[in-house]
Every structure is written in C-alpha cells, then in structure tokens.
Design brief:
Strand order of the largest sheet: 5-6-7-12-8-11
Order of helices and strands: EEEEEEEHEEEHEEEEEEEHEHEE
Number of helices: 4
Bound molecules: 3-(2-carboxyethyl)benzoic acid
Strand content: 35-45%
Helix content: 10-25%
Number of strands: 20
C-alpha cells in the first residue's frame, strides 16, 4: 500500500515506512529526515505553517542507497529518489550550456540507477530549476533543460514520445537542479489530454526540443491504482490562453485536469473525481493567490491543496496545477 501524506510543520507520525518525500516551503531550520527528501524552497501561500512535509509511506521492507548525487529508497517494485546537481560543476560546451549538461547527466544517472535496480519504468518526475525563464547562452533556461532531458532519454534508449513520465518543471529563485522521481518495476499507462497537443509534439516555437512528459500516468501496484497528473496549465492546443488573467488561467487549467481525469478514468477500474485529488498549485505572482484560491475552492471543493509561489515554464503562464490520487482496485 502506497500512501501520500501531507502534514504541517512536523514530520508525519503515521505508521508505515517512509519511501521518501518533499519538504515544501521555506523552513526555519535545517533538520531533514533520513529518507530521500526533495526540498522545494518556495514560499507557501495561505498556509499557517512555513513548510509542508509530503511523504510517501509504504508497508514492508525498505532498501536505500546514495551515490552519484542520488538518494533513493525502494520497497518491492517501487523506487523513489532525489537527485540534486549544481550546474556550476558542469562545463557544457559551445552548443551546450552548463544547465543543459547537468539536466542530461541527471536523467542519465536516474536511468542508470533504475536499470541497475530493475525498476526501469519512470512514472513521475518533479523537476525544479533556478531562474527557469532567464535567457542565457541564447536560449531560455527551460528550453536548455528540455534539450538535456530529451538527450538523456535518447542516450539511454528510451522513447521520448508516447510512453513518457508524468512531470512538472518549475522555476525557483535559487538552489540547484533538483529532480525527484518515482519509478516502478512495471510500466504505467500514459494519459494524454484531448484538449491539448501532446507536449512531446509541441511545435518548435516553444524551443528546439519538445518537453518529454505525458499529461498523466496511471500505475497499478499492490491492488492500488495511482494517478499522477502532470503540471497542468492554461494551454489549449499548444497555445497559452487567458494571458494576464489568473482566474481565467486557473479555470482553464482545471478544465484541462478534468479532461485528463476523464481520460484516466476510462483506463482505470474505477473513475477518479476532482475532489478526491491532492493538488499542488504554483502561482507566479503572490498577489494572484486570493483569486486563484477562490476558483480552486469553487471547483474542487474541500480537496487537499498546497499553494506556493514559483515560476512557470512559459513567461505568459501565471500558474500551473498538479495533482495525485489513488484508490484500491475493485477485486
Ligand atoms: C505545459 O503544459 C506546461 O517540462 O516537464 C507542465 C508539466 C509543463 C511538465 C515539463 C512542463 C512540464 O507545457 C508546462
């Protein structure tokens, strides 16, 4: 049984072993638990606590390891890891920025680990990079990341279209390139959104290489169905809609999530519904928070929602929403 637990200010005392997790927010002190933790250093919005601890709990024995800047833990056919690379350690080259080189290296190390551990299927990746919209080396940093990421998929003989992980790619003020990942012994089912062109088919207007992610993945393990919904924005077809209108972008993003949930539900044993999802909402401008929260609450009701201030990968996107849900299979 995999359980996702979100708790304020202290590490959860729930029973079960910790596979890994994330520390979201701006912690006052540096105490970090012994399992792999991705730090998402960004201000929480509307929270009574400066941090949220998100933890993946499992039953049964855990094995773990550290090396090559990856910290990982696994339980049966499930592995969670975090890799942090500082791009200043990478030289790049004339046609390759240090960030591009670091991104490619990070994914190559992830794939090497997953192959060695016999859990080759990447289900979900959480990508954070400093100053995502900044242009250096003649290219926006998000686009540099996309080149490096796709190169690694190709180098490691993985498809860069179709069966690709769910993901998010978010900009933070500083820190290192940080990628958390959840992988399995068995493949997940990739889900696309009929309202959007698949990201791996985006036209070249959005960068020399398309981003390598699917709109969601549906995984089955230990009698559970897990639904990982990628960062979802106000994009219809391949174009940003509702420029400058945060409430409008929030409504459109939720319409996209609803469409993805409908697609996923067709493949699942039981339907998923919006109020049962846990959400993380990234808002570019903190001043938009009240308007965004109002739309979220009107649409998804009493769902669990974490809001934080962070940058989104297109300059005209004001927010992005990701989500997770799980339930038991029928039989
Ligand atoms: C989009 O739909 C918005 O590059 O991994 C969302 C989720 C976005 C994941 C990624 C980017 C990524 O294109 C941006």
């Amino acid at each position: 049984m995999l359980r996702f637990v979100s708790s304020l200010s202290t590490v959860s005392r729930e029973t079960g072993g910790q596979l890994g997790g994330a520390l979201v927010g701006v912690p006052a002190s540096g105490a970090v638990p012994p399992w792999p933790v991705q730090r998402v250093f960004a201000p929480l919005l509307g929270s009574t606590s400066p941090v949220v601890h998100e933890t993946w709990l499992v039953d049964g024995p855990l094995t773990s390891g550290r090396g090559e800047d990856i910290h990982w833990r696994r339980n049966g056919g499930l592995l969670y890891g975090v890799i942090d690379l500082d791009e200043v350690d990478f030289r790049g080259g004339p046609d390759c920025s240090p960030l591009q080189a670091a991104s490619a290296e990070a994914y190559r190390r992830i794939f090497r680990l997953l192959d060695a551990q016999g859990v080759p299927h990447l289900w979900r990746a959480w990508n954070y990079l400093p100053r995502i919209n900044l242009e250096t080396h003649g290219l926006e940093r998000y686009r540099q990341f996309n080149i490096g990421r796709q190169d690694a998929f190709v180098d490691c003989h993985r498809s860069s279209t179709g069966n690709v992980p769910a993901a998010c790619a978010i900009g933070l003020v500083g820190g290192t390139l940080s990628i958390a990942f959840l992988a399995g012994e068995v493949p997940a089912v990739p889900i696309e959104n009929p309202r959007q062109i698949s990201a791996y088919n985006y036209p070249a207007d959005y960068g020399p290489r398309s981003p390598t992610f699917s709109r969601a993945t549906l995984a089955r393990i230990g009698g559970q169905e897990l639904l990982f919904i990628s960062g979802t924005a106000s994009i219809v077809g391949h174009q940003t809609v509702h420029s400058g209108d945060a409430a409008g972008q929030c409504r459109e993003s939720l319409a996209n999530i609803a469409a993805v949930v409908t697609e996923a539900s067709r493949q699942a044993q039981r339907a998923f519904v919006l109020p049962e999802l846990s959400y993380r909402v990234y808002i570019r401008n903190a001043g938009d928070f009240p308007a965004v929260r109002a739309v979220m609450e009107a649409t998804v009701g009493a769902a669990e929602i974490v809001y934080l201030q962070a940058d989104i990968c297109r300059a005209d996107l004001l927010l992005e929403i990701e989500a997770y849900a799980s339930h038991l299979q029928e039989n």
